[in-house]
Specification:
Shape: globular
Strand order of the largest sheet: 20-21-23-24-25-26-27-31
Enzyme class: hydrolase
Radius of gyration: 29 Å
Catalytic activity: Hydrolysis of terminal non-reducing N-acetyl-D-hexosamine residues in N-acetyl-beta-D-hexosaminides
Strand content: 15-25%
GO molecular function: beta-N-acetylhexosaminidase activity; polysaccharide binding
Number of helices: 23
CATH architecture of the largest domain: Alpha-Beta Barrel
Helix content: 25-40%
Distance between the termini: 51 Å
Pfam family, one: Glyco_hydro_20b
CATH topology of the largest domain: TIM Barrel
Number of domains: 5
CATH class of the largest domain: Alpha Beta
CATH superfamily of the largest domain: Glycosidases
Protein name: beta-N-acetylhexosaminidase
Number of strands: 39
Largest sheet: 8 strands, parallel, barrel
Length: about 900
């Protein structure tokens, strides 16, 4: 298509040039055009104004007349306004549209999808050129729905050719670049028009009952909590197993620091380096090591004490502090609890005794650096905060369609090519732009960790008792690797080295299979019938294992990914030969995907490495052919029977880790607001309170307290179900089996910067830590005989609900009055919540999710004022929350 258009544009230019020579009348603007110059392209890109707006998500308005009854469509309009006349027609504008364009609805432009979310906008023969001040509107129909301002991806860029047919340097259209809000520090998209019509722009279907979280809605939501200073004097996070206050609690001042008895630590078998990071976090809050400070003694736990990894005892007396534990993590966690107890106002802690141990041994956080890269410093900061809240598994996702982020010795193409996105259709220097990355490779969303960087990350994590679990997704989600190895193949073939060229080749050039992944790629899946694919996997894993060895933390778990394989290989001659050979017992092309997972899982097991994968891919395997200690991450939606697969895989005996999207995907919006960042395919509102409320040991019971993505009740049936042959389809967890833990996820499709990543992760990560460490008394006990749960089943009793509300009141105050300030001192740019507000009879009332945060309001034409109590105002009024240090502001909302 690109070549055809370019040729037709050249022919059109030549024809028009000829016409202009024979016609003495004033030419039409298009007829005057012959060719672009670089300076002209630069100028045009700098002044073209682009506006992007969602018109409607209502199927009756958006879909074609012959659409199916259940088809979902949306309509978008893109306004193009030039400040100067421009007649040239041979240009192309590239932009990211995450839900693909199905049809263009006006007659001057064409749009075609290039690859993934990359689209090409071109003028057609009806195009009449740009006139100064005139707006041309491109109207198109898209697939599915569009419910967020963040969907308007940035960095549109324009491409054109000069008179010799040489492509000029692509230019980003300046009006489509993101900007930074000076008050919040957040990315904003000024080219995206604000949503104003809830029904047409923010409602998915007629059944959608989710309410836009405007100030009056948040005011009602926040009314369940209030400022309570009494609960924070002894509060800490995560909540310990037991906490006993002294009969007459006293405040112990740590203003003069702490004096660590390092000899007692050595006597307990622990080197100081094992707790050094925890001590540094305490020092960051103002409590430094000092001989004159309060004595801190360490002792080895005896046999009668809970010996589970991470267990500890913390005793705070008037004149000394003692920590008892079995191993390094317990001592570190004891200091972490002391840090959490600390009042920043006066650097005091209360006298008490804590006996504590973790609920789960797997307490994880997953970060995707493939879709958009995140810096080493961001990762170091994240690791430090994970340790502060007793999380112990870092699942680092470094290989996907949009980028390969780890240097692999011997395979330089993976990072030379696969770590960069730029405008190169040959994909020999980089892979194609996606996710609004733009045409240039020198952008922060590109990048990779060198081998030295990775070793540093693993060492940093190990010093904080955190295991790093690397992941390069395969066999799907592998486009970056495939394109990089294609470049390697071509380069070596050009050198005449066919054997080396084919050693790590990942696709069959003769494969004619037509497929599309969930992200709309048709070339992102490894060919699992090729031995070179397994050579590649073995090479990558072996090199990563060497880096772990160098870092001093052996590679003990590797995550294959194994999810969302798009049905490739169906027409691959190599696969046909593979099946015909029948060496591995494969008789059907549908079996080769499971074969890949089973083979790689056992390849890992043979190296002493636990294999991990996402639950959908893992469910396709033959359990008997999988290593018994396999790990599976459950990313199934509970509202869509997600508990069934979780229970099935728990019953396999696998290490089953809950990663359920509607509560543990931190790339989803905090509140139901189109201005909030994030994807939203499973939830449009996942705030900290929802994460706190998660009943992890009884997934179906959450149907009693949650709604689905459209704000409607759902039912979770956990009873035994068999087919007509008596084969078990689904059923409850077997007695004696349980999930291994939980993990938060940050996927990065819409998360472009480190600052945005921190906004999305914090403070939800703190609630992840709470649920991973502490089992609340209000959680509905699991019923092994199986039950049906819904909004009326009544297992989540009124007393349980009341206790949950009481615990959240304490937690919300702890965050607002104590913990967020500690994040600030670590330089973490967490999300400051949007405030609730109403105006009744001229009186403004305000509240916030985390009591204790300062609030401000501003009337039209006036200055910001501190809010303390209901105040007389004239509507409309702007409202916002302020960080404890006063430096950062939450997003401003308007209340009428």
């Amino acid at each position: 298509m690109k070549t055809t258009w370019a040729l037709s544009a050249i022919m059109m230019s030549l024809s028009l040039a000829a016409c202009s020579q024979s016609n003495t009348q004033s030419p039409d603007p298009v007829e005057a055009a012959v060719a672009w110059q670089q300076s002209q392209l630069n100028d045009f890109a700098s002044q073209l104004d682009v506006k992007y707006r969602i018109v409607t998500n209502i199927p009756e308005e958006a879909c074609a007349e012959d659409a199916k009854a259940d088809e979902r469509c949306f309509i978008v309009e893109i306004d193009l306004t030039s400040s100067t006349d421009l007649a040239l027609a041979d240009w192309e504008i590239y932009f990211s549209q995450m839900r693909p364009v199905k049809a263009v609805l006006n007659d001057q432009f064409n749009i075609e999808r290039v690859k993934g979310d990359l689209h090409r906008l071109t003028p057609n023969n009806n195009f009449t050129g740009f006139k100064a001040g005139e707006t041309k509107t491109v109207r198109f129909r898209g697939e599915s729905w569009l419910l967020s301002e963040v969907d308007g991806m940035p960095n549109y860029y324009i491409v054109a050719k000069d008179a010799q047919g040489q492509e000029l340097q692509p230019q980003i259209i300046a009006s489509t670049m993101v900007q930074v809000d000076p008050e919040t520090g957040m990315e904003v998209r000024p080219y995206v028009e604000e949503f104003v019509d809830a029904k047409r722009q923010y409602q998915r279907t007629e059944q959608d009952k989710l309410v836009w979280a405007k100030p009056e809605v948040l005011f009602k939501q926040n009314s369940a909590v209030a400022v309570d200073e009494t609960v924070v004097s002894y509060s800490l996070l995560p909540t310990p197993k037991t906490q006993t206050l002294a009969d007459n609690p006293k405040k112990v001042s740590l203003a003069n620091g702490v004096s660590l008895d390092k000899q007692s630590l050595l006597d307990a078998g622990i080197e100081y380096q094992a707790i050094e990071a925890a001590v540094a976090r305490l020092a960051r809050l103002g409590v430094t090591e000092n001989e004159a400070g309060v004595k801190v003694r360490f002792s080895k736990a005896d046999k009668t004490t809970d010996s589970e990894a991470g267990s500890y005892q913390l005793t705070i007396a008037n004149d000394a502090i003692s920590i008892t534990a079995h191993e390094a993590s317990g001592f570190s966690y004891g200091i972490a609890s002391l840090t959490s107890l600390l009042s920043l106002n006066d650097l005091t802690v209360s006298t008490m005794q804590i006996e504590d141990s973790p609920r789960y041994q797997y307490r994880g956080m997953h970060v995707d650096v493939s879709r958009n890269f995140h810096s080493k410093q961001f990762m170091l900061d994240l690791i430090d905060q994970m340790a502060a809240y007793k999380l112990n598994k870092l699942h680092l996702h470094m290989g996907d369609d949009e980028g390969w982020r780890l240097e692999i010795d011997g395979l330089p193409e993976l990072t030379d090519v696969g770590s960069k996105r730029c405008h190169d259709f040959s994909e020999t220097r980089c892979i194609l732009p996606q996710l609004g990355s733009g045409p240039n490779s020198d952008t922060p969303v590109n990048g990779f960790y060198s081998m030295a960087d990775y070793v540093e990350l693993v060492q940093y994590a190990d010093a904080r008792q955190i295991q790093v679990i690397p992941s390069m997704d395969m066999p799907g989600h592998s486009r970056a690797a495939i394109k990089a190895m294609d470049v390697r193949y071509k380069n070596l073939m050009a050198q005449g080295n066919e054997t080396a060229a084919k050693e790590f080749l990942l696709t069959d050039a003769q494969d004619t299979t037509v497929y599309s992944s969930v992200q709309y790629y048709d070339d992102n899946t490894l060919n699992v019938c090729m031995e070179s694919t397994y050579h590649f996997v073995d090479k990558v894993v072996s090199e990563i294992a060497k880096l772990h060895e160098k870092a001093g933390q052996p590679l003990t778990t590797y995550h294959i990914g194994a999810d969302e394989t798009a049905g490739a290989w169906l027409e691959s001659p190599i696969c046909e030969a593979f099946i015909a050979d029948n060496e591995y017992g494969i008789t059907d092309i549908k079996q080769v995907g499971a074969y890949f997972i089973e083979r790689v899982a056992n390849m890992l097991a043979d190296k002493g490495i636990q294999p991990g994968g996402w639950s959908d891919g893992m469910s396709h395997t033959n359990v008997a052919k999988m290593p018994g200690n396999s790990q599976s991450n459950i990313w199934d939606v509970i509202a869509h029977k997600g508990h069934q697969r979780a229970h099935q895989q728990v019953n396999h005996g696998w290490a089953t880790v809950l990663s359920n999207p509607e509560v543990l995907y931190f790339d989803f919006p905090y509140e139901a607001d189109p201005k909030e960042h994030g994807y939203y395919w499973a939830s449009r509102a996942t705030n900290s309170q929802k994460v706190f409320s998660f009943m992890t040991d009884n997934l179906p019971a959450n149907a009693e307290q949650w709604q689905d993505i459209e704000g409607n009740p759902f039912e979770a049936d956990d009873r035994k179900v068999v087919d007509e042959n008596g084969k078990l389809i689904s059923g409850p967890i077997q007695q004696g089996k349980a999930v291994a833990g939980i993990q938060g996820q940050l996927w990065s499709e819409t998360v472009r910067s480190d600052q945005t990543a921190e906004y999305m992760i914090y403070p939800r990560l703190l609630m992840l830590a709470e649920r991973a460490w502490h089992k609340p008394s209000w959680e509905v006990p699991y019923q092994y005989e199986g039950q049906v749960y819904n909004q009326h089943s009544g297992f989540f009793t009124e007393s349980m609900r009341a206790q949950q509300a009481k615990d959240w009141q304490k937690m919300a105050n702890h965050l607002g009055q104590k913990e967020l300030a500690k994040l600030e001192k670590a330089g973490i740019e967490y999300r400051i919540p949007t405030v609730g507000a109403v105006i009744n009879n001229g009186l403004l009332e305000m509240n916030v999710a985390f009591p204790g945060l300062a609030l401000e309001y501003k009337e039209q034409g006036k200055q910001w004022q501190a809010y303390a109590e209901p105040v007389k105002v004239s509507a409309p009024v702007e409202v916002r929350a302020i960080s404890p240090d006063g430096k950062r502001k939450g997003r401003t909302q308007i209340v009428n």
